[in-house]
User: What shape does this take?
Amino acid sequence: MRSGALAGVLLAGCAVAVALGVYGRVHDPALKPLFLFGFSGMLQFKTWFATAALVLVVVQVLTALWMWGRLGAGTAPAWVAPAHRWSGAIAFAVIVPVALHCLWSLGFATSSPRVLIHSLAGCAFYGAYAAKMLGLRVRGLPGWTLPVLGGLVFTSLVVVWLTSAVWFFSRSGLPLT
Assistant: This one.
C-alpha cells in the first residue's frame, strides 16, 4: 500500500471541495441563469438535470455492484463495464451545468439549514468525484478506496438532490418545463 498516494488522492479531493466552496462564497452571485436549455426557469432546469444525473448515478452503483459480484446475479456480461463508464461520463456531463448555475448564479449560500447542507454536499460531491477519478489512475491503493470514494460520490449527490430537487418538487409538483 502506498499511503502517500492515498493521502495525495484524498488531499486533492479536499482541495477541489474547498476551492469550490471558497469560490462560491466570495463570488458575488449573478442571480440569473447562464442558459436554460428550453426550461422555463433556472430551478426547473437544475431540478430535472440533477434528477437525470441521479438516475445515471444509480446505474453507476448497480453496474459497479454487478461488476464486483455483489448482486448475486453471477458474472457481469461484457457490456456492464462500458455501461458503467458511459453512465458515469454522461452523469458528470449532465451535472456540470447544474453546478455552474449553483456557483455562478447562486453562490455558496447559508440562508437556511437546507441551503447550507445543499452547498456543502455540492462541494463534497465534486471533491469526492475528483478523488475517485484520481484513485482510478493510482496503483497500490487499498482495496476499499474506490468503493468508499464511489459511495461518497453517490451519497453526496443524493443529499444534493434531496435538498434541491425534492424540495422543489414538493413545492411545485412535477413541472415538465
Remarks:
- The chain has one domain: 3-172.
